[in-house]
Write a structure and sequence with these properties.
The complex is a heterodimer. By secondary structure, chain A is mostly helical. In chain A, 74% of the residues lie in helices and 0% in strands. Chain A contains 13 helices and no strands. The radius of gyration of chain A is 24 Å and the shape is globular. In chain B, 31% of the residues lie in helices and 20% in strands. In chain B, strands 12, 13, 14, 15, 16, 17 and 18 form a seven-stranded mixed beta sheet that branches. In chain B, strands 8-9-10-1-11 form a five-stranded mixed beta sheet, with helices on one face. Chain B has a four-stranded antiparallel beta sheet with strand order 4-5-7-6. In chain B, helix 16 packs antiparallel against helix 17. The longest helix of chain B has 18 residues. Chains A and B meet through helix 2, helix 4, helix 6 and helix 11 of A and helix 1, helix 4, strand 10, helix 8 and helix 14 of B.
């Protein structure tokens, strides 16, 4: 098991290096530089531009800039944001809990609803449940996140007044300092009455919007995987032995059907972080997705490089974890030479 | 900060807030973006200026809702007869915020603070010059280093003497701009001694009607009313900026009562807003101009008749409808109607493609092929330059002119237009200080040798125009200056160096419960005079 883990870990290193190189080059290829892009109609005099570029180290040859960056990265220095002048790592860590809270709850939402939906659809194949659930899954998968989010806000918040429009907390009623950055935890820690429920209410719509696509994918994947497993001989044997359908599906079949689903969940994590960008924009959720988009507009190279590297790290680690989980569930994989 | 210390502080703060929050009036403003920091002088974006504005004051300020300058921290000022010395008398007893970031001021505002605030932007050896990688763009852009000779204390602690290198009337308007905010020199020293000077730009201390409480990155900025402010205690107790990047989400929040004032609505939402009984949509012409310039240095645009023909060929009403979606008005002058000295008697160009075609023929222009440059970014004075370019292209085709559309990345575009590479192209301008000089001298200015300045996009130089505009910058009598700028507008209408397309309209939807709020022509959002009805 350890060897399996170490082998997998070693494979991530070339991935990192390639990623570092590719983001660096791609960012530099985009036209516009951090200073000029933020100037208004007046522009900037060539002398001042040269001075500012020099101050930011942008007039160095590219290969030197890359080596400086790689060197700093190895020492844990992710650079300083050109826009806010604070360390990129600090900015990321301030904003990341919000994105994490959103993606975790969205994933839980997707899993808790998706797997049972897929299982039910598979076990009652062709029936009303199956057709309805899969129809809904297709719809959910096809909807644009932005549109879906705005529709929910229009209906749930503006018309039915069931949920707040955006943000993480009611700004008029509550004010507490973030301790962990997770609103669900901080609201309890604040000791203010009603704060926790307020945080939950603010989380509902973003969670649904972000979790819709993973939900659809997980439901469909569970269903098709389940269908395959239910065709297996050992299932027929179990039925012949007289085991109840619920026990067959829930205990024997599900465990095997979950293998491809677990892989899909791992892949969805990357998609979640991408989808978080749109969700964060609609719901004014102060997370890393929004921060990255703004950094692109402002050509904030250090923030972009740092942000991309950090997110890529997370995605790689999550998939590493999924691989491990895979090996745990299916012994054949971890013992493969 | 240590976990338990933070926890303790959080619990204390929250319990105090809950106790005081019982009858507190809170105004929530839905803003569109995050500030980069809280010091106006090191920034150029409206978002950051908005975020810092409640905290600071300047020597002078714009009367809310206008571009007129009135006293603020300075209660009066006098200009010497030769126009080279301005003496400001500061109001006595102006207090700085106390208790922010552990700082307690020991004295009131005086000349030292004013000098500190400008020296930081001006003198490279100032202790704070390099803090936060300071780049004092506006101080430089408004030409302050070329205008200022010295800023010193006068006869007493409350007198500031500004000596100029040459007489300049608009400099007073410059001092009302955000970059001229007056900071506390004492707070600066306090932080420097503590070893944390960078906090100066993150946790601001000023004399403004609201003091800074907290900023949660990308989420919310909080201020509370400053009871000892020189302008008196504001009517609202807590001011909150809810950072909401999406325009539709801002409107949804306004409708739900989660915020009471918002910025930058979607033009598409305007009819719905106007029909909504709980919302007041305030509107005003923005202090801007979107124009289509012909390069006067490239034939045939050196001929006035050709330029006039082009102006007549363009259907600006259609452009206002389609590109601005109604959120704009046709521009007949360079400056917008909200600016003093605007000449309403100017006769606007008529839309007459037949006459335009004939004028071109009469000028001997045949088979003309040109380029039309368009901006790849949305600007306040032009929401969709590409669409506008396409419409102009179609209009010009009707009078027999063939054109290709050209664009570059924004920084590149601007550089090349300033260098005069275009034959024709679009650009615009948003006013900085509410002074007509800021439009006329910048956008149609030429140097002493008669060569057009960088920002003179039509590359047009007219000796009489220059004489009039230069003179208006030097004298201080506003009535005299008005006459000169009106003459300038007449010359421009005659010579038609460019086609003035539109001034965009600024819409600010606010909740009906909000009173005392005025739209600022300069795009700022100010809350010191605002109240919320229950």
């Amino acid at each position: 098991m350890i060897r399996f883990f170490l082998k997998r870990l070693a494979l991530t290193i070339p991935t990192f290096i390639a990623l570092m190189f590719i983001t660096f080059v791609m960012l530099r290829l985009v036209p516009g530089d951090p200073i000029e892009v933020r100037r208004g109609e007046r522009g900037i005099s060539p002398e001042r531009l040269a001075q500012l570029r020099h101050d930011m180290g942008l007039d160095q040859p590219l290969w030197k800039q890359f080596l400086d960056y790689a060197n700093a990265l190895l020492h844990g220095d992710f650079g300083t944001s050109i826009v806010s002048k604070s360390p990129v790592l600090h900015e990321f860590l301030t904003l990341f809990p919000a994105t994490l809270e959103l993606t975790i709850t969205a994933m839980i939402f997707a899993i808790v609803l998706g797997i049972p939906a897929g299982v039910i659809a598979a076990s009652r194949r062709g029936g009303v449940y199956d057709q309805t659930l899969m129809g809904l899954a297709l719809t959910g998968y096809s909807m644009p996140i932005f549109w879906w989010g705005l529709i929910l806000v229009l209906v749930m918040s503006n018309t039915l007044h069931l949920t707040p429009v955006s943000g993480r907390v009611d700004l008029i009623k509550f004010y507490y300092q973030p301790v962990t950055g997770f609103m669900l935890i901080d609201s309890i820690l604040s000791g203010q009455k009603g704060a926790f429920m307020d945080a939950v209410r603010h989380l509902i719509l973003p969670m649904i919007v972000l979790g819709t696509v993973p939900l659809a994918v997980i439901a469909r994947m569970t269903r098709s995987s389940m269908l395959e497993v239910l065709e297996e001989d050992y299932v027929r044997t179990a039925r012949a032995k007289g085991l109840s359908w619920t026990r067959i599906v829930g205990v024997h079949a599900l465990r095997n059907a979950l293998i491809p689903v677990v892989t899909v969940i791992g892949l969805q994590v990357g998609g979640l972080l991408a989808g978080a960008v749109l969700t964060e924009t609609i719901f004014s959720w102060p997370g890393v997705g929004k921060w990255l988009i703004e950094s692109i507009n402002r050509r904030d190279y250090p923030a972009l490089q740092g942000g991309i590297m950090l997110i890529a790290t997370i995605v790689i680690l999550v998939n590493l974890f999924i691989d491990m989980l895979y090996g745990l569930i299916n012994p054949r994989i971890r013992h493969a030479k | 900060m240590k976990f338990h210390k933070l926890l303790g502080a959080a619990l204390l703060a929250s319990s105090m807030l809950v106790a005081g929050a019982a009858n507190a009036k809170t105004l929530v403003y839905c803003s569109e973006g995050s500030p980069e920091n809280f010091t106006p002088s090191i920034n150029t974006t409206g978002t950051t200026f908005d975020a810092a504005r409640p905290v600071y004051n300047r020597l002078v300020q714009f009367t809310p809702g206008t571009t007129q300058v009135e006293p603020a921290l300075a209660e009066s000022w006098t200009v010497s007869p030769d126009g080279l010395t301005i003496t400001f008398k500061l109001r006595p007893g102006i207090k700085f915020h106390s208790g922010v970031n552990g700082f307690t001021p020991t004295r009131d505002l005086n000349a030292e603070d004013v000098i500190w605030s400008f020296d930081r932007q001006w003198k490279p050896d100032h202790p704070y010059a390099k803090v936060s990688a300071g780049s004092y763009d506006y101080f430089n852009d408004m030409g302050m280093p070329d205008l200022l000779e010295s800023i010193t204390k006068g006869d007493d602690d409350l007198t500031v003497v500004i000596k100029l290198k040459k007489p300049n009337a608009p400099i007073i308007a410059n001092l009302a701009m955000d970059f001229a905010a007056i900071h506390s020199a004492e707070y600066a020293k306090f932080l420097m001694d503590k070893g944390t000077p960078e906090q100066f730009d993150q946790i601001p201390v000023g004399t403004g009607s609201f003091s800074f409480v907290d900023y949660q990155k990308d989420a919310v900025i909080r201020f509370k009313a400053f009871a000892d402010g020189w302008a008196g205690k504001p009517k609202i107790d807590d001011l909150v900026y809810a950072i909401t990047p999406d325009a539709t989400a801002r409107y949804a929040k306004l409708k739900a009562g989660e915020c009471q004032v918002m910025i930058a609505p979607n033009p598409a939402d305007l009819p719905d807003m106007k029909a909504n009984a709980d919302i007041n949509v305030l509107e005003q012409a923005g202090l801007n101009i979107g124009y289509y310039a012909m390069n006067n240095m490239k034939p045939p645009f050196d001929k006035k008749e050709v330029r006039e023909a082009f102006a007549m060929a363009i259907d600006r009403d259609a452009i206002i409808k389609e590109v601005y979606q109604g959120a704009g008005q046709k521009a007949k002058n360079l400056i917008p109607p909200t600016m003093w000295s605007y000449d309403d008697s100017t006769k606007d160009v008529e839309y007459n493609p037949e006459k335009a075609k004939k004028m071109l023929e009469d000028a001997g222009v045949k088979d003309l092929k040109i380029d039309i440059w368009w901006m790849p970014v949305q600007r306040p004075y032009n929401p969709n330059a590409k669409r506008m370019a396409e419409m102009i292209q179609a209009d010009l085709a009707k009078i027999g002119v063939e054109s290709t559309l050209v664009s570059y990345e924004w920084g590149e575009y601007r550089k090349r237009m300033q260098a005069g590479e275009h034959m024709t192209g679009m650009l615009g301008w948003t006013g900085d200080n509410g002074d007509p000089d800021n439009f006329f001298a910048v956008l149609l200015g030429c140097n002493a040798e008669g060569k057009p300045n960088g920002n003179n996009i039509p590359k047009w130089c007219n000796a009489k125009f220059k004489e009039v505009v230069d003179k208006a910058a030097e004298i201080t009598d506003q009535a005299e200056r008005t006459k000169l700028y009106q003459e300038a507008q007449k010359i421009q209408a005659e010579e038609m160096p460019q086609v003035n397309i539109a001034h965009s309209t600024v819409f600010e939807p606010i909740s009906k419960k909000v009173t005392g709020y005025k739209v600022s022509p300069l795009g700022s959002h100010e809350f010191q005079n605002v109240d919320i009805a229950e």
